[in-house]
Amino acid sequence: MKTLGIRKNTQKRKERLLEFELNQEQADRLHGPVGLYIGALTPSEIAVSSLAEVMAIKYSISVPKKNSFFWFA
């Protein structure tokens, strides 16, 4: 699966947010990489993956951490 947003860059972004008077809780709201794992490869599939994560967050559905899926082991 192709991902939008590399974990290392996401961590760096969070660190920079803390420099701008955001607290840790606010910085932790930044999600990355974007999207749920659905095996997406094409741009339209990646869009579906990203929107699926947005919808899950909107409706307070628990989304597993990216590394907790058994197929990432």
SSE order and pairing:
Layout: H1 7-19, H2 24-27, H3 43-58
Compact description:
By secondary structure, this protein is mostly helical.
Quaternary structure state of the chains depicted: single chain
Beta-strand fraction estimate: under 5%
Distance between the termini: 14 Å
SSE succession: HHH
Count, helices: 3
Whole-angstrom Rg: 13 Å
Mean pLDDT: 80
Helix content: 40-55%
The 3D shape can be described as globular
Molecular structure report:
By secondary structure, this protein is an all-alpha fold. The protein is 45% helix and 0% strand. It contains three helices and no strands. It has helices at residues 7-19, 24-27, 43-58. The two termini are 14 Å apart. Residues 68-73 have low confidence and may be disordered.
List its traits:
45% helix, 73 residues, single chain, mainly alpha
